[in-house]
Amino acid sequence: xxHLFSAGFFYLLCMFFFRPSAHAQFTMGAQLRxxxxxxxxxxAPLPQGSSPAxxxxxxxxxxxxxxxxxxxxxxxxxxxxxxxxxxxxINKVTTQENNGLLVHEAWAEIMLLDTVVKNRxxxxxxxxxxxxxxxxxxxxxxxxAQQGRRHDAAVxxxxxxxxxxxxxxxxxxxxxxxxxxxYNPTPPGNYTATTNGGTMxxxxxYLYASRKxxxxxxxxxxxxxxxxxxxxxxxGVKIWDKGAHTRMTTGMYFNNTFNKLTLTAAGYYQFGKNxxxxxxxxxxxxxxxxxxxxxxxxxxxxTDYTTGGVNAAGKSHAFDPLYGTPHxxxxxxxxxxxxxxxxxxxxQDYYLKTKYKAGSKFLLTGDLHEFYSASEVIxxxxxxxxxxxxxxxxxxxxxxxxxxxxxxxxxxxxxxASLTSAxxxxxxxxxxxxxxxxxxxxxxxxxxxxx
Length: 451
Prior knowledge:
This protein is mainly beta. Helices cover 4% and strands 53% of the residues. It contains 2 helices and 21 strands.
């Protein structure tokens, strides 16, 4: 935290000594978010007799933004750790510092058209940044995870009236090489990159186009990401080579509200080669509606379908939801498309979602999911049931002030033998009921200085 407040003091000094130009704005804020969790099978069922986990994690962020004539700057520094992770005193002589402090965002956006041009904007955003589109299913900031997600990228943006067109690109390297561009996507200490624990991309390019509707959006996405080629050594360890395998994902998203009815639909197709050099042909289909029954209560039904499995020729049909926010879609227990894999079986999710909002301060949501495999589940030559299980999620949120909010949740999963079988999560003697509960406190003040 000392580093965070030092950075804040530095920015205040900059504001004092380096006076901004006309029409400049400086924004500064902080966030402290704690989350205390009781995990009894969250992520994957535990073996019988296992004890639940209990801990508190904390995200500490300091962010600043500066905007002036034809430019914007953004910086977010964060520290993420578990309470008690560090000793109360650290001997710097014999113990290396545990570095949980990192730069989450550091970007600049340049307005390529003069700001007096009406109804048109052409800009270039470069640097470390969050990339989010639509409902964050494929591209999101993963804000639920304390560490979040960011990309080192350049994004060219054009906006006019209801239309938006973005072109983005990224090219990753582990260090400043003297020669070559071989990239190790899983260096020691790094988080996995994709939503379901995949390796980090070597490079990425995308085109995003959207049009605003009367009360919603329709959009198109084409994304290409490349993964380092490799060969295994004598022990099976991957040795990274020159060149890359290319995977492509394309599709459309639709969301609009008609009076009291909100409709959402999406369809995406994935092809090329995945990070494991398998030929790929996979897809995702999603459709849902939410109906406002009264001013304070709404309910709706939906379904998601992602393909899975591998055919006899070795072609993979396992859809990868890229760099999104899976916690938002496939149950809060995070059994699917997060860190704990499920054998690339694909997923069928049929769900009911309800929302109760009492005034501007209190929100209660309740969801129910039925999960099935999208492909056959076979163990020892025997075909098992495709049903993975049932999940119930309950979340309550209360805003004490505009700065301080509280959140609490409880989730329960009733799993089947298919889910814990060797072909899926491979958990021997697994418990059939799993639980997860949490309480979170979020404090986020912000100050704005104008000239």
